[in-house]
Design a protein that fits this description.
Elements: H1 11-22, H2 29-56, H3 74-91, H4 95-98, H5 104-121, H6 127-142, H7 146-162, H8 174-194, H9 209-222, H10 226-236, H11 238-241, H12 248-266, H13 270-275, H14 278-286, H15 294-324, H16 328-337, H17 347-368, H18 380-393, H19 398-405, H20 408-418, E1 424-427, H21 431-439, E2 445-447, E3 456-460, H22 464-470, E4 476-484, E5 487-497
Parallel strand pairs: 1-2, 1-3
Antiparallel strand pairs: 3-5, 4-5
Helix pairs in contact: 1-2, 2-3, 2-5, 2-14, 3-14, 3-18, 5-6, 5-7, 6-7, 6-8, 7-8, 7-12, 10-14, 12-14, 15-16, 15-18, 17-18
């Protein structure tokens, strides 16, 4: 209908469209569009592991050697911290919903993680970091975050410039690293300029007390449990940060986090901006693991065990209530909150949920048992509990969540009223509503202002105030209202075209 996308991005929409074009006919279009986004999530996790690994290879990040030897080798130590970084980002609560969406935010996370990996690996590799860094910065620019791409590049180049005196495996090439980072950043900026993707989104006038409070709450839960560990890392390494040449393993991830937090504060898309800082925040969290005392590790374990076990029990109890009607109160709550939803048993999701629960019990048993100590052991239960919650929600609760969050029930009610006309006119409809009416309802939606003489007019409830001032309603009559089952305020008003004589 001529509307621009919600985010000024190109590449994520291209990827989804290409996937639908390439996919064979037996693959549904909506499923095909999810495939590249699933691959981008996997790339984000992989880039986080390798980014943390190469940062941990930095000589300043290595532990002090024992007087008589016996310490872990630098590579083994780096791998252990990389495992911790991967577990930390998986455990972050903010990753739960956004990582399962086919939105530009998922693409931005992927390309931010590639940038993070590239600048972390430059002292040890050349070709792969060069490709990853160029693709990451260009991908960020094409995914709606060109300013963050430029800031990531400039800050990384500055970090390398400050760290030039630090000995590393390829000290003599530090100047080339800086030139390469600046070249990739310039390329991303030129690409953004040529495609006219620069947009001003900073809004300083909205920084009220209420917004600061909301941002604080968002930061606390969105980045949990990585943020307290990252804060502990900064505190323990504070003396190194105050030196003339602070180490790359601190300055690089700190810069990525600072850029993400600043963007979160200054733009409306707070959670999606904060998402881009999770790979670097997870790396910082990993560096805290070797310094945690046994009591702190035990506190993390007990809190995580109680929290995620409680979540799993609640999910199972409500599912059993939907299945059997017992306990009665949870079943009544579901019927009240999700009216019209009809639950049905599905064997495959049940088996997956059952195996996930058994795996959680085994993981808890393993964690409290006697086994060789591992640096990343404090993040095993947080990440495992997060994965358990993901699996239970996307198996036992997925039909209910689909019904509650999807536009499908609303579209079915609209189709039952208008049947199958040649077209319908829409006024004030958001983009997701237009897409739902087109895809799920097989309706051809035209703008009310310039559309043809369609027999039906569908109006979003929020647009009623300006409907009668912008549209001539002399030939329209309100016929029905279609409400979202889980939100009665979310209503579509359906008008039918009538002749003047009929009126």
């Amino acid at each position: 209908m001529g509307l621009p996308p919600e985010v000024d991005a190109l590449l994520p929409y291209w990827l989804g469209a290409w996937a639908m074009q390439i996919a064979p006919n037996w693959i549904a279009a909506d499923f095909a569009a999810r495939i590249p986004f699933g691959l981008m999530l996997a790339t984000s996790l992989l880039a986080t592991w390798y980014g943390t690994y190469y940062l941990a290879r930095n000589p300043k990040a290595q532990p002090v050697a024992f007087a008589f030897g016996g310490e872990a080798s630098p590579i083994d130590y780096a791998r252990a911290l990389a495992d911790g970084g991967l577990l930390a980002i998986i455990a972050c609560l903010g990753l739960a919903q956004l990582s399962h969406e086919t939105t530009p935010a998922q693409a931005q996370l992927c390309f931010a993680a590639l940038c993070f990996f590239a600048v972390a690996a430059l002292p040890y590799r050349t070709v792969l970091p060069a490709i990853s860094g160029t693709a990451g910065l260009a991908g960020l620019s094409l995914s709606g975050a060109p300013t963050m791409a430029v800031l990531f590049g400039l800050g990384s180049a500055l970090a390398y410039g400050i760290d030039r005196q630090v000995a590393n495996e390829r000290r003599d090439q530090t100047g080339f690293h800086i030139i390469g980072i600046l070249a990739a950043t310039t390329l991303a900026a030129l690409l953004t300029t040529l495609l006219d993707l620069w947009q001003w989104r900073v809004d300083l006038l909205e920084l009220t007390t209420a917004k600061w409070r909301d941002l604080g709450r968002l930061a606390l839960w969105f980045t949990w449990p990585a943020w307290p560990l990252a804060g502990w890392t900064v505190w323990r390494w504070r003396r190194h940060l105050g030196t003339v040449a602070p180490s790359l393993h601190l300055t690089l991830p700190l810069w990525f986090v600072v850029v993400a937090v600043a963007t979160t504060i200054l733009t409306e898309a707070s959670d999606r901006s904060l998402l881009l800082g999770l790979p670097a925040l997870a790396a910082l969290a990993a560096f805290a693991l070797p310094t945690l005392s046994r009591s702190v590790s035990a506190l993390i374990d007990w809190f995580t065990l109680l929290f995620f076990t409680g979540c799993a029990i609640v999910i199972w109890v409500i599912w059993i209530a939907m299945e059997t009607g017992v306990p009665q109160q949870p079943a009544a709550n579901v019927a009240r909150l999700v009216p019209g939803f009809e639950h049905s048993f599905s064997l495959f999701p049940f088996v997956i949920a059952f195996l996930a629960s058994v795996a959680w019990i085994w993981l808890v048993t393993w964690r409290i048992g006697r086994h060789p100590a591992a640096i990343w052991k404090s993040l095993v239960l947080p990440s495992g509990g997060a994965v358990l919650s993901y699996l239970l929600l996307t198996t036992l609760w997925m039909p209910m969540l689909d019904y509650a969050r999807s536009d499908v029930p609303l579209v079915k009610r609209v189709v039952a009223i208008v049947n199958k006309p040649d077209c319908v006119q829409g006024f004030g409809l958001p983009r997701h509503r237009i897409a739902a009416l087109t895809f799920h309802g097989d309706l051809t939606v035209q703008p009310a202002e310039v559309g043809p003489r369609c027999p039906w007019l569908i109006v979003e409830h929020e647009a009623l105030a300006k409907l009668f001032t912008e549209i001539d309603m002399a030939h329209w009559e309100l016929t029905a209202k279609a409400r979202q089952p889980t939100d009665r305020a979310d209503t579509l008003f359906i008008y039918k075209r009538v002749s003047s004589s009929a009126r």
